[in-house]
Amino acid sequence: MSLRFLPFFDSISISEGLVAMVTICIVYILLQKSRVKIPEGLKQLPGPHSLPIIGNLMELGWNPHLSLTAMSERFGHVFKIHIGSRPVVVLSGSETVRQALIKQGDEFAGRPDLYSFQYINDGQSLAFSTDQAGVWRHRRKLAQNALRSFATLKGQTPEYSCALEEHISKEGLYLVERLRKVTKADGCFDPFRHIVVSVANVICGMCFGRRYSHDHEELVSLVNLSDEFGQVVSSGNPADFIPFLRLLPSKTMKKFVDINNRFNKFVQKILREHYETYDKNNIRDITDSLIDHCEDRKLDENSNVQVSDEKIVGIVNDLFGAGFDTISTALSWSVMYLVAYPKIHEKLYQEMMEKIGTGRTPQLSDKTNLPYLDCFITEVFRHSSFLPFTIPHCTSKDTSLNGYFIPKDTCVFINQWQINHDPDQWKEPSMFNPDRFLSEDGVEINKTEAEKVMVFGLGKRRCIGEYIGRSEVFLFLTILIQRLKFSSLPGEMPDMTPIYGLTMKHNRCMLTVAPRPGFEEFCSESLH
After folding, report:
1. Residues of 371-399 as b/e, b for ≥16 C-beta within 10 angstroms?
2. With 70 as the cut, is the pLDDT of residue 496 above it?
3. Where would one find coiled-coil regions in this protein (predicted)?
4. Which range scores top for mean pLDDT: 105-119, 422-436, 486-500, 510-524?
5. Which residues are annotated as a binding site?
6. Residue by residue, what is the 3-state secondary structure of 148-162?
7. What is the pLDDT of residues 330-347, one digit of tens each?
8. For the domain 2-515, what is the CATH code?
9. Annotated binding site for heme
10. Where in the chain are the domains?
11. For residue 205, how many other CB atoms are within 10 A of its CB?
């Protein structure tokens, strides 16, 4: 006889479940007797009542971003829930989050020691790391410098302003022809399937100095497993907060570990090749740059910490992993909005024809001349909020926020979805409307409004790849809109309901494309 405890886990015997629950009840009672003492002048955090063992887990449901947004309406922008017996502080509201992550940045810059994090890059991940501040800051600085240097590196030909623009342009043009050929052969295509490989190839070019075929089995299988990865590390994974659940059989967790092992094996094979062919006088890509640092054994002057080879490898893994999932999700959502709002799709195309035409490939420098496209991308970021939460934060010391006491080592969720849908900040937040970001004269984006949208985090943990990410989304989308018209299949409309995860994906669907005037002829698919 068996029972099921939460949808996340497989069947266990009743005796196993009872023993586990009795043990946890005893631990829970002991924990309740050791409550944190609130310093004078500060208030206790508000929040919903929690159940023994599972805390508020059942209240989170399948869409924690919506559940926690509803709770913020009851308890305010700073409140506490329990996942298992572990307290979690939830922050929402633009001003509150900016206070925490910018003005009190050092106090909220930590990462919680969550169970699933140890499997990401063999525990050496930069983004998910619980490293001490000195080591973490040094690794972050290394990654930032590597990204900056290779993003601004000159392209192989003078038509490109930099290597980043060259990588994106070539992959964008290849993607156009790929989608046309698949449509001609099969009648339709899954946009995410093809977008994710093109985006992965951009970061492969920067990190590894190579690209892969869209039919490369290993790469295609890896990049299409990002959904499963995101579902485990998203805010609210039960096993991260309820220790005894780690002992129970879980197909989801088993698959998550397998994904990480396959991913690490793929990247480490490339890294071994780089070590074997490394030439200090010929730094070819980001990986060579980081190997060069390892060889020199440079020390951080401020913290006097030395970064190990394993942690350097972890940086490469992070750059590659984050470099395709976030951007491909943003691009695939953008295509879905083009299909769902054909009038906006046509308005974007007309802007493109007026400012660029058909005589050349769009460039990164065109951004200031395409304000409506800039507004469209910003509204996609806001309306989809495909990154509903940042990676969980953690307090590095006892602190307070909005008059509430928050102890050291408290896990903190940042609800970006709530900020992007706050009715106090946005008029008709549920409506998709790029015009909300246009200036009054309609000639540029209203930067003050655009900066209210939260997608890449804030403060010391803000995404280091934000510039590259924004550049990729803009240039890929510009090339696609210039050359293709996207449509759904006759009688069908795309399902815009997001699927919860670290990055929220749309439901898979099939689309078609038709070439725009001036681009009817097929081009060569080869990349040089």
Report:
1. bbbbbbbbbbbbbbbbbbbbbbbbbbeeb
2. yes
3. none
4. 422-436
5. 463
6. HHHHCCCCCCCCCCC
7. 999 999 999 999 999 999
8. 1.10.630.10
9. 463
10. 2-515
11. 23
